[in-house]
Amino acid sequence: MLQTGSSVSTRESIHSAAAQLFRSRGYSRTTVRQIAAEAGTDPALVIRHFKSKELLFLETMHLTLDDEPLLDVPLERLGERLAELLLDLGGSARGVFLALVHGSNEPHIHDRLRDTHEHLFVEPLRRRLSGPDAGIRARMAAAVAGGLLYALWVAGDQGLLRMDRAELVSRYGTLLQDVLTPRTS
Amino acid sequence: MLQTGSSVSTRESIHSAAAQLFRSRGYSRTTVRQIAAEAGTDPALVIRHFKSKELLFLETMHLTLDDEPLLDVPLERLGERLAELLLDLGGSARGVFLALVHGSNEPHIHDRLRDTHEHLFVEPLRRRLSGPDAGIRARMAAAVAGGLLYALWVAGDQGLLRMDRAELVSRYGTLLQDVLTPRTS
DNA sequence: GAAGTTCGGTCAACAATGTTGACTCCGACT
DNA sequence: AGTCGGAGTCAACATTGTTGACCGAACTTC
Q1: Residues in Cβ contact with A166 at an 8 Å cutoff, skipping those fewer than 6 apart
Q2: Are residues A30 and A79 in the same domain?
Q3: What is the mean pLDDT of each run of 10 residues along chain B (185 residues)?
Q4: Is the same domain home to A81 and A153?
Q5: SS3 state at B95
Q6: Hey, which residues 10-39 in chain B have their CB within 8 Å of chain A?
Q7: Phi, psi of B65 (to 5 degrees)
Q8: Distance A7 CA to C7 C1' (A)
Q9: HTH tetR-type domain: which residues (chains A, B) (predicted)?
């Protein structure tokens, strides 16, 4: 194999520098030259390694959720557990989510956001539900979950942000629970 | 008065051209030169009239909601009415909402989105509610409402988009109603 | 060991972007 | 008549993503 020693390390330098910058500054506000500088290399090399800024973005911005907590909880506590999961989702997840939302003006990034929404929220919930409208309920719960992240992070609702976490978990938990397993009033 | 005849008309040409382009192509994908061409004028004039592309964006992208339908409906049908309102919100409102969401990487646009969320959803609902937790319920309902628009337009959930409108109104209506006026189970 | 090929790296350049400044022009007021 | 202010035009600037030309080193092949 031809020398890959140096290439791998610089490629990874670019990758991690890009991930950090995209998370903290978003897609449009981070420049290829910034990434190159942070990685200690040349802007041209960034493009050479990842073809384009957009592909680099797509390669670095992955949002995953450990869905074990959603699987091992009894069905009647699924809403509460999901609420906990969402409100504990801080740090890097926030940056990735916002970068995807903000960048989704770009078609490919929009596709990525759609996929993320699907297999981050819809699918795990769908697997826990049964009944003819299980799909619909899963999608609605996913929309409610996304709505929480939207209100907190995208819209920046100060009222919700300042709320006591326990109360928010409780209220949003029962709300999600009602969507997932409706009370047949 | 000094000649304002021509200036007003070109200024309005720029305004409407910008509004249309921002709505259909978003903030980052519409260029000042495109706006100028559409308005039949010069890129420099666009900046001269509106100081910057961002200020032009803020001046054109306003999202308003006719909240009368939320005021004249009995309280126990507020959720359903809100769901109808959200799902009828098509056309230009969709473009403005998406432009704000996508552009809110920019701090000033983020402020605008926060204000819009506040006085489009939170305030009208807050006014219809009473009780010690009225503010919280209004904010949560606003988050759910935003979540619907997020799932439909930002994430582009195909499952929800293909759903029967009447069923979506019914399901989301009762969901919102439960948030606004909780059943004390 | 010599030649050659392939890849990482550097540099300069390109087109397109938002924005600015210099300059012209024309209508309005003194 | 003259001057003043704002609208319009044009050329330029810095910055953006991206490309192509070159260089050097390491591995392969004879």
Answers
A1: none
A2: no
A3: 56 96 97 97 96 97 90 94 93 95 96 97 96 96 98 98 96 96 81
A4: yes
A5: helix
A6: 26-29
A7: -130, 130
A8: 9
A9: 8-68
